[in-house]
Specification:
Radius of gyration: 31 Å
Oligomer: single chain
Structural class: alpha/beta
Strand order of the largest sheet: 9-6-10-14-17-18
Shape: globular
Length: about 850
């Protein structure tokens, strides 16, 4: 791109075209600026003239002229040059000229030892370099900015340097690192009192939160940006905040689309464009043009997308506008679509931005299926998934990868649905496997692909699944997405793939917009404990499983299920045909995060340790400590009361398994003990304690234990669980509340306590989808261990225990929410366990019976293991 030396003149000309007669208010603005001219340096008057030039006054052109005149009068002062650079960038879009002016300002400021204008100028230069994809040059500017900001001692300049570092991380694809850096800055930014600083921060923070999948935080950030902008009379920033809010609204509606939602988005986009026109800042309308280009009828859409390209201010934006134009033109004008997609590719490459490159391939994949042969479209589709996964691999940290990956999950659903429509089942299965539980797969160190140079895991194939299945086993893989997207096009659909040793069959299911509300309603009915869930459980059985289970071989006794979306919260054991028994009484059910992980679990050998179970039960009540959030309310550990039933539960484990087990209660059931020894030497770790699942911030979930020493707080958080040693091959039983629940990220699955035990190497994990009442936990796990001690598999023991409670007339809440996660076919005690001495059995039995009577009398007021 050639450098232009006529940016300021062109800017004056453009503004002069819109300038009308001078009015009194404009005159007073310029007069006010003129009165500031005697200041020692030109910062104050330059800032004043800049505000006039970028505002809505008819005298904007004279504001620019006055700023140019100030620069001429004070040629060695960097401040007028800095503000002219801002104007070249933000109004005339003369990016080359802005870069020249920023560099001139930095040179002048450095010569005079003026750190603030040099920092601002170098920040402006670095941002232009980032937008142009010149990341190495931007990194060099960044080093100087950080050094100068530290030297200045200014909190604001140091904050701006930190923001620039985060933006460099974003430009290099390090989105999680950028978010982490920005999330800690807001208190100092807010206290600075500088609206310009706050504006830049909220824009950067909201964007990073959105790109890393933290949509709630991004929504809050954009809303605050708009509100503060309105309070400061900053219409352009108010519009930018509204545009960010609108994009987030679009993301939410894409998950659960409807025709009414499409009308809502179109109306909001038109309002956004109208507001942008009122400011006479065309670039502010880029989001409105893009949204209308995506959702409006084609003739209007084409106009908006062409305008989107014209007003876009960066290669990233231009690439996305071109790519969307290609998608809209593909069905009716393939040649024009091809030209547009190639321009999108050129702009994405120019940007040097991994996010833009992934976005381009997202559009290229969908266009290829519209205009090309399926074989060619499939090749482009694998390239698209490679680009998404390359962006994912740039993220560091256990939360960054799954959150970013979840924002791209719809591409995997869409591709798999396309392939299933063609009956390309093997390829469809591979596409969806590439999405599932990727961070967990990486954490467990699964073998890499044999493909030369590939860093991706070797994903399971349907043939591998078929070979691994037993003759009485079926593998059910769900994928749940909309059949129609917000634009009215194909959305991927909902499917069930059922694999046995013989073959794989596919079944179409209701879409996400129908399944989610039904699953939520079922849980609510179960919690009511009045057995009104029967009708809905039969409906969900009919919609999700009826045809598939009817087609299974008669000898099928075991189901291995890969849930998806809201089905992670679904108690499959509760579903039943009308007038039939629930699945929990018919099949041994195991839930797994993916086929790839199931094959790994299946290949593990159960621990053969001589000692049997280590049980943690009924730690003492907590002192005050950090709180966790559940359902929007904060839970203080000090509010967690005693669990007398949990101690009896631990005693029943010892009674059924005999010698070789250890029960820790009270102060001995400590975090310090667990961290010191893990489950070393034991086959099973059993936790009969309180736990809290924080669905908003899973990292704050915890299992409550005694502290054990001054270094511990008694709250065993997910990252601490993941770091536990000696868990490989161990079975973990979480007789605690909501231990199998947590935040559900598309593609990754449930981010919660049970998952953390997988990361630590445990398999299988028995957990609960909802709250466990103290007496009901005792009843279920007493029966579970009785069956386990007879040499049954984990899934078979749970089925038998649930069958016992069903026969006893227990409510669904007492048994249906406990699930086996991982390989439920494992048999911890293949040799069976000898009964404990008769006297001990009689004594423990009498105590247990007495306790049970007391608990039944107190049943209505029984505590739960929250």
């Amino acid at each position: 791109m050639r450098h232009s030396h006529h940016g300021a003149a062109a800017l004056v000309f453009l503004l002069a075209l819109a300038a009308g007669p001078r009015d009194a208010s404009a005159a007073s603005e310029l007069d006010a600026c003129a009165s500031l001219a005697p200041a020692p340096d030109a910062q104050t008057v330059s800032s004043c003239l800049y505000d006039v030039a970028r505002g809505s006054s008819p005298e904007r052109a004279r504001g620019v002229q006055s700023l140019e005149a100030l620069r001429s009068r004070r040629p060695e002062d960097p401040w007028p040059v800095l503000y002219l650079a801002h104007l070249s960038l933000r109004i005339s879009r003369e990016l080359d000229q802005a870069e020249i002016l920023y560099r001139d300002c930095a040179r002048l400021a450095s010569r005079r030892g003026m750190i603030p204008p040099e920092v601002h100028a170098r920040i402006g230069t670095a941002r232009l370099l980032q937008k142009a994809g010149r990341l190495e040059e931007a990194a060099e500017e960044l080093k100087t900015v950080v050094s100068l900001a530290e030297k200045s001692g200014s909190v604001e300049l140091q904050g701006r340097a930190a923001m620039l570092s985060a933006q460099q991380d974003m430009a290099e694809g390090e989105l999680e690192q950028a978010y982490s850096a920005l999330s800690t800055l807001w208190p100092s930014v807010r206290s600075s009192g500088s609206w310009g600083f706050q504006r830049e921060y909220l824009s950067a923070f909201s964007g990073s939160a959105q790109q890393t999948g933290r949509l709630h935080e991004a929504l809050k950030g954009f809303r605050e940006l708009s509100q503060l902008a309105a309070a400061h009379g900053d219409a352009p920033t108010e519009i930018s905040g509204l545009a960010g809010f609108l994009n987030l609204r679009l993301d939410a509606l894409n998950e659960m689309p409807s025709a009414a939602d499409r009308i809502e988005i179109l109306a909001m986009a038109r309002k956004l464009l109208a507001a942008a026109r009122a400011t006479e800042r065309p670039a502010l309308g880029v989001n409105g043009h893009w949204l209308l280009g995506m959702l409006a009828p084609l003739p209007e859409a084409r106009v908006h997308l062409q305008r989107c390209v014209e007003v876009a201010s960066s290669p990233q934006q231009k690439s996305f506008c071109h790519g969307t134009l290609a998608l809209r033109l593909a069905p009716s004008d393939p040649a024009a679509a091809d030209a547009a997609i190639h321009e999108a590719m050129t702009q994405a490459r120019q940007s040097g931005d991994p996010f833009s490159w992934a976005a381009f391939w997202h559009q290229r994949m969908r266009m290829s299926w519209s205009v090309g042969p399926p074989e060619s479209a499939l090749r482009d589709s694998w390239e698209a998934l490679d680009a998404i996964e390359a962006l994912r691999d740039l993220q560091h940290g256990t939360s960054g990868q799954p959150r970013l990956f979840s924002t791209w999950a719809e591409d995997y659903y869409w591709l798999s649905g396309k392939l299933l429509e063609l009956n390309w089942t093997e390829d469809a299965f591979l596409a969806i496997e590439r999405m599932r539980a990727r961070t967990l797969i990486d954490a467990l160190g699964l073998p890499r692909s044999s493909k030369t140079g590939s860093s991706r895991p070797s994903f399971a194939s349907l043939e591998q699944v078929r070979r691994a299945l037993g003759p009485d086993e079926a593998f059910l893989s769900f994928q749940v997405s909309p059949w129609t997207d917000l634009a009215g096009d194909f959305g991927g659909g909902s499917w069930l793939l059922v694999t046995t040793r013989k073959d794989t069959k596919t079944y179409q299911l209701p879409c996400r917009t129908e399944v989610r509300p039904s699953v939520d309603a079922l849980q609510g009915l179960v919690e009511d404990r009045n057995k009104t869930e029967a009708v809905l459980s039969a409906t969900l059985y009919r919609e999700l499983l009826d045809r598939a289970l009817a087609d299974l071989p008669e000898e099928t006794k075991r189901l291995v299920i890969v849930p998806d979306d809201s089905l992670h919260r679904l108690p499959f054991a509760l579903l039943r045909p009308e007038d039939g028994e629930p699945l929990g009484a018919i099949y041994q059910i195991s839930l797994v995060p993916s086929a790839t992980l199931w094959l790994r679990f299946r290949g593990q050998t159960p621990s053969a340790a001589e000692k049997l179970a280590l049980v943690f039960a009924d730690p003492p009540p907590a002192g005050s400590g950090a709180s966790a959030e559940r359902g929007g309310a904060f839970v203080d550990p000090a509010s967690l009361g005693p669990l007398p039933g949990s101690k009896r539960e631990g005693e029943s484990v010892l009674r059924h398994l005999g010698r070789g087990s250890l029960l820790l209660t009270g102060a001995e059931a400590s975090e310090a003990h667990l961290k010191a020894t893990g489950l070393d030497g034991f086959r099973i770790g059993h936790f009969a304690t309180h736990s809290v699942a924080d669905s908003a911030r899973p990292e704050r979930s915890f299992i409550y234990l005694a502290a054990g020493d001054l270094k511990q707080d008694g709250q065993l958080h997910p990252h601490e669980i993941a770091e536990l040693g000696h868990l490989r091959g161990k079975m973990v039983v979480l007789s605690t509340c909501e231990s199998g629940a947590g935040e559900i990220l598309r593609g990754e699955g449930v981010m919660g306590l049970a998952r953390s035990f997988f990361v630590a190497g445990a398999n299988p994990v028995v957990a609960s989808l909802w709250r466990v009442r103290d007496d009901e936990g005792l009843a279920l796990f007493d029966r579970f261990y009785a069956h386990l001690a007879r040499g049954e598999s984990v899934a078979a023991a749970l089925k038998a225990a649930q069958r016992d409670l069903i026969d006893d007339g227990a409510p669904a809440a007492a048994w249906a929410g406990v699930v086996v996660l991982g390989d439920g076919s494992q048999v911890p005690f293949p040799e069976g366990r000898k009964a404990a001495p008769r006297m001990l059995v009689s004594l423990v039995g009498a105590v247990t019976l007495l306790t049970a009577v007391v608990l039944i009398l107190k049943r209505r007021n029984s505590s739960s293991r929250v």
